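Entry 14. Structure prediction run on the chain below.
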Amino acid sequence: MPRYNHYDLGVQIFQDEYKVAILYQYDNRWRTIWTDGRSLPKLVDGGVEIDGKYREPSWLGYSVGKWIDDYTLEVVTLGTMPEERVWLDNTGRPVSDQLRVKETFRRLSNDVLEWSETIEDPKIYTRPWETMKLPLTLQDSRIDLVNRYCSISEIETYNEIYGNPLSGK
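Output returned:
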C-alpha cells in the first residue's frame, strides 16, 4: 500500500456494516478499511498509536474510512512500512514513515465507481499529489478472477498466445 493500488487492477471490493475489504489479485493480499467509527491511528516515531498502545508499521498500513455522503467513502491510511520495504509504485518511488494516503471511492452510477488517491509524505515530497483517478466497473458477481502466478504453465500459455521471442515465433 499504496503500490498495490497501482500494480494490478484485478481487485474485488466487499463491504459489511463494519468494514470494507479490498482483495488484491496480485500476491493474494487483502486490506481492511474500518468503517465502524473508530479513530484514525496517530503516527508516532516508528509506528502508530491505537487506543494508547504502540503498534509497529504494517505492510498495508492502517486504514480508516468515513462515509461523506451516500455515494462517497473517504479513506485515510497511515502507518505503512518505511521506504526500504514499501514503494509508492513499481518504478520504485520512495515513501517514508510519514506517508499518508487519502483515497476516495465515489459511486458515479449504479455500475461505475471512481477510485482516486492522493499521496502526502512531507519527508519525501514537497506537496500532496493525486496519483490516480480510476473508473471501476461493476462486474458480474459470479466472475472468477484468474490467479496470476509466475509458473511454467503460465509461461507456456503466454508463449502459445503471444509467441516466444527466443524461438522466433
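The chain has two helices and eleven strands.
Filed with the rest of this week's runs.
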